[in-house]
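Troubleshooting entry. The earlier prediction with phosphoenolpyruvate gave an output that would not parse, so I re-checked the input for stray whitespace and re-submitted. Clean input:
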Amino acid sequence: MRKKIVAGNWKMNLTFNEAEDLLDEIVDLLENETIDAQVIVCPPYPYLEMASDIAKESNFFVGAQNISPFEAGAYTGEVSSSMLTSMEITHCIIGHSERRKYFNEDDKMLTAKINQSLEHKIIPIFCVGEALPEREAGDHFEVVRHQVRHGLFHLDTDEFEKVIIAYEPVWAIGTGVTASPEQAKEMHDYIRSLIAERYGKDIADKTIILYGGSCNSKNAKEIFAQEGVDGGLIGGASLIPEEFLAICKAAK
Ligand code: PEP
C-alpha cells in the first residue's frame, strides 16, 4: 500500500517574514486536523533552516527545490546535497520543468543531481511531463518515457526505490488548466508500466507517483482518487494555507 504524499513547491515566492507566517499557519492547521498523507514543504533555500526548525515541532517534512549536481568545491552559488542533509532536509525537487526550461537542465545534469541527492540520503522528487505542443502532437508518452529513462533508469533497484516521481504536464503548471483525472491516471499507469519493465512489478507497485499542475482544493479529491495517483506536487495553492490544507486532506 503506497502512502499518499502532498508536497508544496513555494517556488521563488515570499519574504522571510511571510514565509514564517505561512509555516506557522500550516503548523496550526495541521495540528488541528487528521491528515493521512505525508506532507512536505519546499520553501526557497534561505528559509530552509527556519522551516526545518519549525518542522521538528510539527508533522511535516522539508524539501529543497533544487540541488547542485556537484559534490563540493568551487561552484559559486551552488548548494550541495551534503549541506542539505546537514540541515536535516529530507527531500529535493529535481527536474522541475521551470528548471529544465529557464536553467537548461538537461538529462546529464539531472542524472548528476539525482545521484548526488541519493548519495546524501535526500529523497528526490523527480519531475517529468510534456509541453502542450508535445501533447497536441501525440508525443506525450514518448517525451515522458525519455525523461524517466534518462533521468532514473541508470539507478540500481535499491537506489530507485527511494525516488518519488511527479508527473507534471507543463501545460498544467501555473495555468489553471488541470489534466483531467483520466489523463493523469493514463500517464501514471504508463510511467508505472515503464518502471515494471525496468525494475519489475513489485518495485513499480511501490513507487510513489504524484500529480502536479494547477491542483487545488476543488479538483484534488477527484485526481487523487484515481488508482495510481499517489498525491500531488502543489505550486500556487501551497502558498494559501487553507487551500494547501484542503489538498492535504483530499489525499487519503
Ligand atoms: C509546480 O510548480 O510544481 C506546480 C504544480 O505548480 P502549480 O500547482 O501552480 O500548477
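This one parsed fine. The first helix runs from residue 16 to 31.
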